[in-house]
Amino acid sequence: MADGFVRRHVPSLAAVLGLVSIAVVVAAVRGVVPASALPHAPDWFVSAIPTLNAAISATAIATILAGWRWIRRGDVDKHRAAMLSTTLLFAAFLGLYLYRLVVHGTTEFPGDGAVYTFVYLPVLIIHMGLAMVCIPLVYYVLLLAGTRPVAEIYDTNHAKVGRVAAALWLVSFALGIVVYLLLYVLY
């Protein structure tokens, strides 16, 4: 019954899930979630989250590219595994990012004003914008794939939307690594 409902309402559910996900991120950014509501991790772990997230992002780039390659070769099972791995990596990234944001707060850019204005800020804005656009698209392709047999997926927008979602996801993950390098390595 629930599967039939989901199957019939994929676009609406993707939109609702996307909005809820973005609302959770905005709530964390705006400080709505108190740090006291979360368990306290050791300082070394909280400090390691940005580096861990950069590694997760690099791994996610590899799994997206692998998924793209495998579907072009017709290997649906490997494509599915790669894209599910990417989704799990993204969930881990987001969970760690939000945890650190709530318990530690944002990290101020340590560089000078010109680099902040003309490099860091545009990269950050594009990274965040692509991530927000990508979320409902990813939900959409996951819901399509999860509610249909493989033979039926070819009759949906899964491939078309999936190509857009994967491309945006790749760029967002790559720009996230640039943000990390600017915040924690170069400056």
UniProtKB/TrEMBL annotation:
- On the tree of life, the source organism's domain of life is Archaea
Q: Which UniProt keywords apply?
A: Membrane, Transmembrane, Transmembrane helix
User: What are the transmembrane regions?
Assistant: 12-33, 45-68, 80-99, 119-143, 164-186
Native organism: Halobacterium litoreum
Q: This protein is called what?
A: DUF420 domain-containing protein
- A Pfam entry, by short name: DUF420
Which lineage do the record's taxonomy fields give for this organism? Archaea, Methanobacteriati, Methanobacteriota, Stenosarchaea group, Halobacteria
Cited InterPro entries: DUF420
